[in-house]
Amino acid sequence: MSISRRRLLRNTAAFGALAGAGFPHIWIKNADLAHAAGGEIKVGVLFSLTGTTAIIEESLNKATLLAIEEINAAGGIKGSKIVPVVEDPASDPATFSEKARKLVVGDKCVSVFGSYTSASRKAVLPVFERQNNLYWYPTLYEGRECSKNVIYTGAVPNQQQDEFVPWLIKKFGKKFYLIGSNYIYPKEENNYCKKLLEKYGGEVVAEEYVPLGHSEFSSVINKIRSTQPNVIFSTVVGDSVVALHRQYRAAGLDPEKMPMASLTTSENEVAAMGGEAAAGHFTSAPYFMVHKSPENQKFVEAYKKRWGADKVTHFVSEACYFQAYLFKQAVEKLATSDLTPPNIRDAVKGQETIAPQGKVRLEPENLHTWLWPKIAQAKSNGQFEILVEAKEWLKPVPYAAYPGQSCTEKGLVEKS
Amino acid sequence: MDQFIEQIITGLSIGSILLLVALGLSIIYGSMGIINLAHGEFVMLGAYAAWVFHSYLGLGLLASLVPIFLVVAAFGWVIERYVLSLLNNRPLDTILATWGVGIMLQQAVRLMVGSELRYVQLPPALSGSMDVFGLSVSSYRVFLFVVSLALFAATWLLMNRTTVGMKLRAIIQDRSVAASFGVNAKRVYALTFAYGAGLAGLAGALVSPLKSVSPDMGTGYVVDAFMVVVLGGVQSLAGTVASAFILGELSGGIAFLQNDTVAKALVLLAIVVLIRFRPEGLFTARVRA
């Protein structure tokens, strides 16, 4: 009996696969070594550079790269350079998931920094959970998530609204008009807002959602006129924000009597709509470009120097910047041979860093971040004026709107 | 009662924006039979032209309307001359070609001026509001309403009272016969396409103070424009006007009673049902063929 080449190949392959399955330890060990091969630490950078949300994600890509360049220029992490692998997921959740798999499985990155929208985060989640890798998510979001494979450095609803809603009631009155784009983020934020309104004696005169990308707000403005709220509580996102503000102004409504209070309008959106259209409205966020601190001054100057003097920093790009430093601190604690995503996650728990917004801390329980809530008013020069600053940092409570549930180190726990 | 009138006015305002955007498409699709998927990108180019004139040359929106029309019309002329005229009588290829042109225009703008959102200043004279039937209405929206009707009138006159319009109508009826009478079909087509593109550019410039300006803004407008033209009946200018205002009132009204998400879905559903039973649209131009 002769052994054909094909059969030999097949048998060898089968044996190899068996060996791989039988002794996974060998393979995983090799993968570990690859993570820090040749004094390089590979990380993925996954922000859209094309497509609808490229408008904002481009700035997140830039802030992430700036932080990585700074860390490398200062000698890297214990002598190893961070090597960013940049991919463009083109604002499309399916592409996000495909590129995430490429970064994690193909490039063997130890962590990936990425995503702006909740849809794209949800799309990559299975990849990171299956591969037990780590995703660093810088955006404020709706909470209600408890993954062991995501480090959340943006604000959750309690960190944006706990101070904001009572302040608005006290200053303007208790009638709120809730308007948002039609997807999960605005609905969850409004769920929490309604809870707070109930607690502080506020009242919802209307709750309304417009399609994503919607740009005709005249009927909404008519409804606002006829319901006469004290505050328009807005979670409208993307280019709709611009249309809403510009049409609000063209309709002759007055921000002094009926201001918009937003969780999503940052310096970036203000630059897009023009300072005049934004002037007088309010935003609650942990960071504003005008915040006075030596760290922020350094961040803003470095950002402008690297990417152009006309560029702005905002509350999502700031989180991109400081989360890269949190990553550095976590990796510093580990021996090169221990450099795996789960170890990085354990090392980052409880880490603190002085971010541009103030000192932040990664909460070990739920992997969200302690932040400094601020309330600011937009001005016609395109910047904000900070009116209220929290005296203490605020704990992240991703399940604030759901008293029966809480996120712990063991995962989601249902309280009885 | 006030609320009712307010809502009617809102509908007219939405309708006038739809009419602005659809007018150029109505000419190109209705007269030349070209399904121009790059129409939204002409709108986008107009909006960017307004932004460029404003931020680099310091021209106000009103002063730059004529140059914007000319610039975008020139674009249209080039595209007709060097792409579409080479694809005569191949409708499917034309759809693909215009789609490709649209993508190229989008990416070109993105590469040249970046993907940030831009905005265009409201003309100061029109930034206030004025009294219409005892209600305060944004002056700029009233201005848009007047301009859209004026552009419609100009287009109607051009089609029905000028030699170029007559030649175009002759070509629509029978191209070879018209050609044998000495009508230069190529030239008339190029001019018509350029005119349609110029109108789209104007529409983009005019809506830019109310909406955001971005490289992919055209996508939404091209859908709106096709809805208006198909509902109104291809080849019927008056039909385009009527359907623009019907759609404006409908979507404004439903949005007021329900919300914009429902309005969008219901309006689309209504159009689909209507097209099922009246494929030629609401209004049809009677042409002896």
Q: What does this protein look like?
A:
- The complex is a heterodimer of chains A (416) and B (289).
- In chain A, 44% of the residues lie in helices and 19% in strands.
- By secondary structure, chain A is of the alpha/beta class.
- Chain A folds into 2 domains: 20-155 and 290-372, Rossmann fold, CATH 3.40.50.2300; 159-285, 3-Layer(aba) Sandwich (Rossmann fold), CATH 3.40.50.
- Chain A has a 7-stranded mixed sheet with strand order 7-6-8-9-10-14-15. A 5-stranded parallel sheet of chain A has the order 2-1-3-4-5, with helices on both faces. Chain A has a 3-stranded antiparallel sheet with strand order 11-12-13, covered by helices on one side.
- In chain A, helix 10 (239-250) crosses helix 11 and helix 14 (315-332) crosses helix 15 (341-348).
- Residues 15-34 of chain A have low confidence and may be disordered.
- Helices cover 73% and strands 3% of the residues of chain B.
- In chain B, a hairpin with a 2-residue loop joins strand 1 (129-132) and strand 2 (135-138).
- In chain B, helix 1 (2-32) packs antiparallel against helix 8, helix 1 (2-32) packs across helix 9 and helix 5 packs across helix 6 (163-173).
- Chain A binds chain B through residues 50-52, 54-55, 58, 182, 208-211, 213-216, 218-220, 222-223, 225-226, 239, 242-243, 246-247, 249-252, 269, 271-274, 277, and chain B through 3, 6-7, 10, 13-14, 17, 110, 115-119, 121-122, 127-129, 136, 138, 140-141, 209-212, 214, 216-217, 220, 251-253, 255-256, 259-261, 263-264.
